[in-house]
Write a structure and sequence with these properties.
This protein is α+β, with helices and mostly antiparallel strands. It is built from 11 helices and 13 strands. A 7-stranded mixed beta sheet has the order 8-10-7-11-9-12-13. Helix 2 runs parallel beside helix 3 and helix 4 packs across helix 6. The protein starts with a helix and ends in a 10-residue tail after the last strand. The chain binds adenosine-5'-diphosphate and magnesium ion.
Length: 331
């Protein structure tokens, strides 16, 4: 059973609806109305060593990225983050000052950057390092940007380079195959990562959630998602939930200079089926794009358009491209 059919079958309607729920399961974050003016946006994401990050990822980066991926989900709803809760499963050999000092420094640095406070959590001993972060944010009532609002004729945009993290991961795993198998220590991946180009390193290990842009797109974007599982699959969620199709122009998608050096088919694999980008993908009418682009030059990039129909059609310089859209599959 796929992740999404499992969620839909077992979790989507597992409990009775509550009056305060504006958006429940199925978007990047849940939206709850607490007062007539503001809504709470909440989301949670779990990261497990060896599955979501290579075993030897530096503790600082584990802390930083665990928060970043959650703030990215809030950003994709247009929410302003204010707090996180951290549930951590810690193997005994990592319950030491060196590891925890670095981990919390990573958490602290990104929280400071986005004015977010760690307000609670839970700590337990486990075999594999596991971090589960819940992030809380707020949006003005009825303003959260959902996945189901895309309209035929909308332009499709992204907030930055796509495919860089996927390229970085491929490079790391090809240089050092032992990374996913060896028991965790703190220095091994540091050495491997130091050979990566710094822009690729940042894309994979220290992604920047697009929090300010997400909020600016309130009232501008008709639909939005963050790209965590691959542009093809994540845009696919907007399309299914909005009941529309899309045409993507591969040559317009912003990419890293290192990615451009690869054969085109490999580039497209990273761009469409990679993942871990934590850029925003959103749709908006063309007049709103022009106004936004004039006021915020070079911050958003048109990569396609919403059309009647279903699914994603890929084009490269007007030529139709066949590329199976897979994205990240958990099961
Ligand atoms: P994202 O990639 O943005 O983190 P996911 O694809 O992981 O979102 O999840 C899709 C939706 O399913 C989200 O609304 C999420 O909250 C919900 N969801 C995932 N797992 C569960 C679960 N075990 N119980 C309830 N809801 C879940
Ligand atoms: Mg998301």
């Amino acid at each position: 059973m796929s992740e999404f059919s499992l969620i839909n079958k077992y979790f989507k309607n597992a409990t009775a609806r509550h009056n305060s729920t504006i958006i429940g399961i199925g978007d990047d974050g849940a939206v709850s109305r607490l007062s007539p003016k503001h809504e709470l946006v909440s989301c949670t994401d779990m990261l497990i060593a060896g599955r979501h990050f290579p075993q030897h990822t530096p503790a600082y980066a584990i802390g930083y990225k665990s928060v970043a991926v959650n703030l990215s989900d809030l950003a994709s709803m247009g929410a302003m983050p204010f707090a996180i809760l951290l549930a951590i499963g810690l193997p005994k050999h990592l319950a030491n000052d060196a590891f925890l000092g670095e981990l919390t420094q990573g958490i602290s640095d990104i929280c400071t950057q986005f004015k977010t406070q760690l307000i609670g959590g839970d700590t337990t001993q486990t075999d594999s390092l596991t971090l589960c972060i819940t992030a809380l944010g707020s949006v003005p009532c009825n303003m959260a940007i959902k996945r189901d609002g895309a309209k035929v004729g909308d332009l499709i945009c992204v907030s930055g380079e796509i495919g860089s993290a996927s390229l970085a991961l491929t490079q790391i795993l090809s240089t050092d195959n032992s990374l996913n198998n060896a028991p965790p220590t703190n220095t091994h991946l540091d050495n491997t990562l130091s050979h990566l180009d710094s822009t690729l390193y940042h894309a994979l290990v220290l992604p920047s959630p697009q929090v300010a842009l997400g909020q600016k797109l309130i009232g501008v974007a008709n639909s939005m998602i963050d790209v965590s599982d691959g542009l093809g699959q994540d845009l696919g969620h907007i399309l299914t939930q909005s009941g529309v199709g899309a045409r993507l122009f591969l040559e317009k998608i912003p990419t890293n200079a290192h990615l451009k050096k690869l054969p085109t088919h490999q580039q497209w694999q990273h761009i469409i089926n990679g993942g871990d980008d934590y850029q925003l993908c959103f749709t908006l009418p063309s007049d709103k794009f022009c106004a936004f682009n004039d006021a915020n030059p070079n911050s958003i990039f048109v990569i396609g358009e919403i059309i009647d129909g279903a699914g994603v059609e890929l084009y490269h310089h007007n030529q139709k491209i066949q590329l199976p859209i897979k994205g990240w599959q958990h099961f």
